[in-house]
Amino acid sequence: MNYTQMTNAELSSQLRSLLLKKVPDVVERDRSANDLSIYQIELEILNRELREVQKELEISRENNAEMYHFAPVAYLNFDESNAICAVNLAGASFLKKERSYLLGMDFGIFLEPESAHQFREHLYMCRELGGRRSVQLRIRTGDDVWVSTLVTTVFNDRVWPKKGAFFSILQRTTTSKEDSLHS
Length: 183
Description:
Layout: H1 8-20, H2 28-70, E1 74-78, E2 84-87, H3 89-95, H4 99-102, H5 113-129, E3 132-140, E4 146-155, E5 166-172, H6 176-182
Antiparallel strand pairs: 1-2, 1-5, 3-4, 4-5
Helix pairs in contact: 1-2
C-alpha cells in the first residue's frame, strides 16, 4: 500500500484499524506484516511532521536573515582571525564600503593600531569568558573619517570553529564634528 498518497486522516484511520486488528497467534507472518504496516504508517506520519517543521524553519530563517540584513543597526560577524564573514546593509553603510568588498576582509584595516590590538583582545575575551562584551574603538570609515565606536560582541560557541562565530554591533559614540577634531 502506498502511504505517501494518503491524506493525514486516511493514515490515522488506517493506523487505528491496524492497531485494533486481532491477528491469531498461529499466523506469525500476518502479525509481522501487520506490525510492518503499522511502522510504515507511523514513519510516514513522522516524515510529514518533519517536512512541515522544516518548512517552518526555512521561513523563520528567511525572516531572520531579512531582519539581520535590513536592520537599522550595524551588524558584523567575524571569524577567529578578525575576518568579516557577514555584514548587514547598515554595517556596510557605516564603513562606507560595499558588502561584497567587506566579506573576508580583516576588520583590523579599519582600526587605529591601538584599537586593532584592543579588538583582538576583545574577541579573545568574548571567546574565553563568554557573554556579551563591549569595547570602545576608533574605526576609520571609507571616507577616511575616524569614528569613536562602541563595539558590542557576543561569541556563539554553537557555530565555533565555523566562520561567523563572533557577532558584533557597531554604535557611533561621537558626532562627526567630535570625530573630525580627533582626526
